[in-house]
Amino acid sequence: MAGTHLPQDVQLERPSSGVAVVSFTGEHDLATRDAISLLLANLVGENHLVVADFSTATFVDTSIVVVVRESGRAARTRGSLFRLQLATAPIVELIFRASGALDELDCVSTRQEGLREAPKSNDLSTEDLGEGTPGG
After folding, report:
1. So what's the pLDDT on residue 120?
2. Of 57, 78, 83, 135, which alpha carbon lies 20 to 30 A from 46's?
3. Angle, CA 117 vertex, CA 113 and CA 123 arms, to 5°
4. Domain locations along the chain
5. Can you tell me the distance from the alpha carbon of 93 to that of 117, in angstroms, rounded to the nearest whole number?
6. Looking at the domain that runs over 10-111, which CATH code has it been given?
7. DSSP letter assigned to residue 26
8. Is residue 124 pLDDT above 60, yes or no?
9. Are residues 85 and 110 in contact, defined by beta-carbon separation less than 8 angstroms?
10. What is the pLDDT of residues 76-95, one digit of tens each?
């Protein structure tokens, strides 16, 4: 995913190989849905653990909730982990809760919880999962 343009108010961290943390700040809705959908789909396909951190988001609409739920399903199908980090504006948690997403997704309230069971770099057979070939 080198060179990927991130949507506004989205930051990507890679704390270790095979692990991605996507932090969402500000507001996310239909205007950012497609970019977020593509980003999360790529990250789920390339990593063993993805944490979608909405702890500093101020608003999400149902289009974003749908994308997050689809990402969680894709990770389960792939046999990887996808976690939703909340501890956010009450309206953000309310939207995720009302949609039923909190019952479906692995939800955490801290980064430490989100990264539990994260693979260590030496546990992976390839160092750069984004390139699609072992060893880069």
Report:
1. 60
2. 57
3. 145
4. 10-111
5. 24
6. 3.30.750.24
7. E
8. no
9. yes
10. 999 999 999 998 678 899 99
DSSP state, 28?
E
For residues 94-133, one letter each, b for 16 or more C-beta atoms within 10 angstroms of the residue's C-beta and e for the rest, the string is ebbeebebeeebbbbeebeebbeebbeeeebeeebbbeee
At 89, the amino acid letter reads A
Q: Can you read off the two tokens belonging to residue 20?
A: 């991605």
Nearest to 26 by CA among 13, 12, 9: 9
The secondary structure element, H or E, covering residue 7 is none
How crowded is residue 60: how many other Cβ atoms within 10 Å of its Cβ?
A: 26
Reported as a single tens digit per residue, the pLDDT across 5-53 is 788 899 999 999 999 999 999 999 999 999 999 999 999 999 999 999 9
37 contacts 30 by C-beta, under 8 angstroms: no
